[in-house]
Predict the 3D structure of the following.
Amino acid sequence: MLIKNPSLHSALVKKAITITPQTGILDAIEVIQKYKIGRLVVIDRSRKPVGIITEKDMLKALYPLDRKPLGSIQVADLMSKNLITVTKKDSVYRCAKIMKDNNISSVIVLRDDGNFDGILTKTDLVFNFLSHESTQLKVSKIMTTKVVTASPKDSLFLVESMLINNKISRVVVTQNQKPVGIVTHRDFIPIRIPNRLGMYTDPNELRDVWYSPHPSQFNINQLGYVLTFRAEDIMTKNPVTIEYADDVSMAALVMYRYGISGIPVVKQSKLVGIITKSDIVFALAEEA
């Protein structure tokens, strides 16, 4: 998938919102909610990047799987220290390949002198593709066809287990094969459901079900007294969809316009796949 200008120009690299390793995790959560972003760059006193922390990392702090008080957890406890860096001499294609090969959603951009310049995310690459696309490509060619789905009445406990065990960022909620909602990791942070569950049940019971790829209905029923919340309670209702025959540039435009990272793909209103920013970035990576 080719674009007209594959260079990593200045307009593409964004200034990052930063925090320190000593920042409390609750303060970090407030920052990502305030600015509606998915990650924060962690810097030391000399403003050198020493880590990165994402929404998914922060969500781990809300799991009741250990006894460490939430208020005592710092960013340093959860941040990723293995930073992947690029410079502005690198191409969009190479950055996309780095993201694909390392299964990451952003890279740190350094100046020629090695100092911190900014951050480049999958969102930036998708917007760049939208601005510089030179070849057309159908959604059906790059979409993911194996979609993890839930029903509106499924417990949030089960939905989050799907997110964790399938290592995905969203679950499509369907009814009669039609998408009626989407649940993402971000939906769990404000309500802090896992932390509430930990107040009423044994963490070992939670662990057995949460991290089981195929939790049994018996075990789920055993925890039924805390599973009162359903997918329909927090899902984004009536999600934006795209037709499988549409062009990828249309998908990129919809993602940019609505500030979303994934779109259910439909054919005659029935769910047939999902296209995400990752799918677009992976297509760009093929040109590296």
About this structure: Confidence is low (pLDDT under 50) at residues 193-201. The first strand starts at residue 18 and ends at 19. The chain has two domains: 10-132, 139-276. The two ends are 10 Å apart (CA to CA).
